[in-house]
Automatic annotation (TrEMBL):
InterPro entries on file: CB, DNA_brk_join_enz, Integrase-like_cat_sf, Integrase_catalytic, Integrase_DNA-bd_sf, Integrase_DNA_bind_dom, Integrase_recombinase_N, Phage_int_M
A molecular-function term among this protein's GO annotations: DNA binding
Organism: Paraburkholderia strydomiana
Protein name: Integrase arm-type DNA-binding domain-containing protein
Domain Core-binding (CB) stretches: 108-189
Protein family: Belongs to the 'phage' integrase family.
Classification via Pfam families: Arm-DNA-bind_3, Phage_int_M, Phage_integrase
Key words of the record: DNA integration, DNA recombination, DNA-binding
Length: 418
């Protein structure tokens, strides 16, 4: 038999090779023994020799002290496969190392990306409440699961680990959180910290894994406890005897039938006392559309009595916005802890408008800044009906200032016989 051309070397031969030079194993794989210096034996390494366009190139495969003969053959085989595909293995390795280095330089964990995005976006948020809401939901639900993960490694399964536990129980929060996850991952993609599809996207992705928010929320809607409208006059009389900015905030909230956060964030720049209109910008509205509130005589009187030492109409005693707990604290001191400010300002008004007035339902819905459910109604009522709503709000303020005769007040939970 002739001398074999492949796999010429053996582990023992590799160990015994001491003379400087190249020892072929076949298919371009060589053991290279370096020159000895003094008492030190020359180092041993593996190289793969190949030709591309007539030019011979050597590709190092590692030290023979670390890479075994079998491993060197595997590396050589991989390089030969690249050559068969027309790829220079040395250039390919350089590109891989370059991409790896870039990936390491651009690597960011999810929490870093979240904080960076909030910093970048806060200029768009006129209300500091948005930053607090983003930070609070991320710290509560997302960071414990995703915070320290490389943002490039986050996939659908990781997103589901965050959303699934709260999707049914706290769907409104979960839906907002999903949007925030999607935004942060999109920010990371634009900044080249990750690649590929956004695993937090809803359409044609998570909508196949989670029930639609509208269906979940329809079955789990929470109603804000409210006063009966027959009690509002006596309640407002007691409220007006209370001192403090929180009491005035609650009074104004009831007179304008607005949401607590809209009143807490109200600024003097939004209020035109001459026109008797409070214009709440779209950014601060739940529905994302500007809302004009006609001010009744009592609402204007309340505002005129408040000193203007702050841009906020109802500032906290030490500056900044009043806590969202402030109206609830007033109710508690009044012995009304069983009801909410939101319910008393809005649900009580809605019941009164439906049961005690001839104002159209659509007008009351407009006063509450509710989107009309009927597309036909919405199409025909593109205006905000300000003049008509002014009459409605004046009637509501008058009713709030009326304390019915004790005999006419219905006990809780009872109705007049028809």
């Amino acid at each position: 038999m002739g001398k074999r051309l492949l796999n010429r070397l053996t582990p023992l031969a590799v160990k015994r090779a001491t003379k400087p030079g190249y020892y072929p194993d076949g298919n371009g794989l060589f053991l290279v023994v370096g020159k000895s210096t003094g008492a030190e034996v020359g180092g041993k390494s593996w190289v793969f020799r190949y030709k591309v366009q007539g030019k011979t190139t050597e590709m190092g495969l590692g030290s023979a002290d670390i890479v075994t003969l079998a491993e060197a053959r595997q590396k050589m085989a991989g390089a030969r496969k690249l050559l068969l595909d027309g790829i220079d293995p040395v250039k390919y390795r350089q590109e891989v190392l370059k991409e790896r280095k870039l990936a390491e330089q651009s690597a960011r964990n999810f929490q870093e990306c979240g904080k960076a995005m909030i910093e970048a976006k806060q200029a768009e948020w006129k209300n500091p409440k948005h930053r607090k809401q983003w930070t609070a939901t991320l710290e509560t639900y997302a960071y414990p699961v995703l915070g320290l993960m490389n943002v490039a490694d986050i996939d659908t399964a990781h997103v589901m680990r965050v959303l699934e536990p709260i999707w049914l129980e706290k769907n409104e929060t979960a839906s907002r959180l999903r949007g925030r996850l999607e935004a942060i991952l999109a920010w990371a993609t634009v900044h080249k910290h990750r690649k590929g599809e956004n695993p937090a996207r809803w359409r044609n992705h998570l909508d196949k894994l989670l029930p639609a928010p509208a269906k979940v929320q329809r079955g789990t809607a929470q109603h804000h406890a409210a006063l009966r409208y027959t009690e509002i006059g006596a309640f407002m009389r007691d409220l007006r005897e209370r001192q403090g900015i929180a009491a005035r905030l609650l009074e104004f909230e009831i007179l304008t039938t607005t949401r607590p956060g809209e009143v807490r964030g109200a600024t003097w720049g939004e209020i035109d006392l001459d026109a008797r209109v409070w214009t709440i910008p779209a950014l601060r509205m739940k529905g994302g559309a500007e809302h004009r509130v006609p001010l009744s005589d009592d609402a204007v009187k309340l505002l005129e009595a408040i000193p203007r030492g702050n841009d906020l109409v109802f500032p906290a005693p030490r500056g900044g916005m009043l806590s969202d707990m402030a109206p609830g604290a007033v109710l508690k001191r009044m012995g009304r802890a069983a009801v909410t400010a939101h319910g008393t300002a809005r649900s009580t008004f809605r019941d009164w408008a439906a049961e005690c007035t001839n104002f159209p339902r659509e007008l009351a819905e407009k006063a509450l800044a509710h989107a009309l459910k009927s597309e036909v109604e919405a199409a025909y009522q593109r205006g905000d009906l300000l003049a008509k709503r002014r009459l409605l709000m004046q009637a509501w303020a008058k009713y709030c200032a009326t304390v019915p005769h004790a005999a006419a007040v219905l006990p809780m939970g009872t109705r007049k016989a028809k």
